[in-house]
Design goal:
2 domains, 8-stranded mixed β-sheet, 8 helices, 25% helix, globular
Length: 306
């Protein structure tokens, strides 16, 4: 049995298959390889036998053109669809505790291979890994998956939240070029609570600048982005901050209870981590502005009060 381990945020993902992947593990997944011995939070078994019947049971939820979640006799099955033709390219059967799956690759290449399932790490973890992080993580260990970028500067985690075009990748790139900061990701980040505060980490799914890290940091500040100058930070009402943050969350719309959990987490995060509305100029002056803001004691107090 061939096994690969990955650490993404607080979770250990394990892939098992009879054969190794058809391609070597490469960027960005190689950054998240794990060599520990913790039991997996999510076990993906890549199967090479015939997949179970398609479109069987009752549709629990679906994202049109992307995936369908079925349920029959208490067993949930996810079908992840091709981008062209919308036929299932992955069939995934969940264990009852949502901690493990059997995964079948349905493309024709599989059935003609004498070596069993030809698979690669990317198709096993994306979008399945993302879907699990958003929708199926057992309720006692939750994360928020956000459309955002994050960096670590002087052991401080900074997250930048905003829609496409607001400057998430630009901000991460400015920090990277300025030096002295570690880019965790510029497109999808994880945020979760621990006993002493909130953590932030990157994921293996980057945006434009193609920089990722498996590191994590204590999240000290949230910035909601507006990519227009001058450089400045302003206060948001609690309602505005909640609305803007939840618009950039990946949400489990198919489950009322899971949605309640996620929204409750988002509310707790915004109560405990200072946030503000950041406008910035697309040059190094934006980084100097933030460094001065975070280093100055009186400004830091003002930032905490936002």
């Amino acid at each position: 049995m061939f096994t690969l381990r990955f650490k993404i945020g607080p979770f250990v993902f394990v892939l098992e298959a009879k054969q190794p992947p058809v391609l070597p593990v490469s960027f960005p997944y190689e950054v998240f390889l794990d060599f520990g011995e913790e039991p997996p939070d999510f076990l993906i078994r890549v199967r090479d036998d015939p997949s179970p019947p398609l479109s069987e049971g009752e549709i629990v939820s679906e994202l049109e053109g992307s995936w369908r979640l079925w349920e029959k006799d208490g067993v949930h099955r996810l079908e992840i669809l091709e981008k062209v033709g919308y036929k299932p390219r992955l069939v995934v059967r969940f264990s009852s505790d949502w901690k493990g799956v059997d995964m079948w690759i349905t493309r024709p290449l599989v059935s003609t291979s004498p070596f069993g399932a030809l698979w690669c790490v990317g198709e096993a973890l994306e979008p399945l890994g993302m879907w699990w992080l958003v929708s199926a993580v057992p309720s006692k260990k939750q994360v928020l998956v956000c459309h955002g970028s994050a960096v670590v500067w002087k052991e401080t985690g900074l997250a930048f939240i905003g829609p496409s075009g607001s400057g998430k990748s630009t901000m991460a790139d400015l920090w990277s070029k300025a030096g002295g900061a570690l880019v965790l990701n510029d497109e999808r980040i994880l945020i979760w609570p621990e006993d002493s505060g909130w953590r932030v980490s990157g994921t293996p799914w980057p945006g434009m600048i193609q920089e990722v890290s498996s590191d994590r940091a204590w999240l000290k500040h949230l910035f909601f982005l507006r990519r227009r100058g001058p450089n400045g930070l302003s206060q948001l009402s609690a309602l505005d901050a909640f609305e803007r943050f939840t618009q950039e969350m990946f949400c489990p719309f198919w489950s009322v209870s899971k949605m309640e959990d996620k929204l409750g987490m988002a509310g707790g995060l915004l109560q405990e981590v200072p946030s503000g509305d950041l406008s910035f100029v697309k040059d190094n002056s934006a980084i100097r502005y933030l460094e001065n803001l975070l280093c100055s004691s009186d400004r830091a107090e003002a930032l905490e009060a936002l």
